[in-house]
Design a protein that fits this description.
- By secondary structure, the chain is mainly beta.
- Helices cover 8% and strands 50% of the residues.
- It is built from 1 helix and 10 strands, in the order ββββββαββββ.
- Strands 1, 2, 3, 6, 7, 8, 9 and 10 form an 8-stranded antiparallel beta sheet that branches. Strands 4-5 form a two-stranded antiparallel sheet.
């Protein structure tokens, strides 16, 4: 049987905490995290008399929105509270710290890595779909916009 340490990504959990002026908010644990990516936009510049290649000059960096998913649980109220207060109380952008744990998260010492997202604000929250004939589980998704991230171990 394979060791848990051989497959840390498949067994990972993600905790999300928000920090900012007058704000420290734990959104709880998530089972899925996607969208941690950055991409440079390149401008193509043609040089007169040079037909061998086109210069590609790096431009702005684009960051994809981060989508966090999990089963609905007691921490779901934290997301609802933050999402509602964001506009009504003018909370403004904050910093989000996403911490990835291995399968032994309960011990508190098994942090695999962290991402710190700058200037975060909520883009979208999606709750469960209900159907009388359905047998699925109730999931929620939180989508965050940001202005870049740092990765640490």
């Amino acid at each position: 049987m394979a060791s848990d340490s051989l497959f840390p990504v498949a067994l990972a959990q993600f905790s999300v905490k928000l920090e900012g002026p007058n704000l420290e908010f734990k959104l709880g644990l998530f089972s899925g995290c996607e969208g941690l990516s950055a991409e440079y936009a390149f401008d193509e510049v043609m040089e007169g008399g040079n037909n061998a290649f086109v210069h590609k000059l790096p431009g702005r960096v684009k960051y994809q929105n981060v989508k966090l998913t999990r089963l609905i649980n007691a921490d779901s109220m934290n997301i609802a509270a933050w999402f509602s207060a964001y506009q009504s109380r003018g909370l403004g952008r904050s910093t989000a710290i996403i911490t990835m744990y291995d399968s032994h998260h309960e011990s508190g010492s098994n942090i695999l890595c962290k991402w710190t997202l700058r200037d975060v604000h909520p883009m979208k929250w999606t709750g469960p779909s209900f159907a009388a004939d359905g047998s699925g589980v109730a999931k929620e998704t939180l989508e965050l916009a940001h202005h870049g991230f740092e990765w640490t171990t």
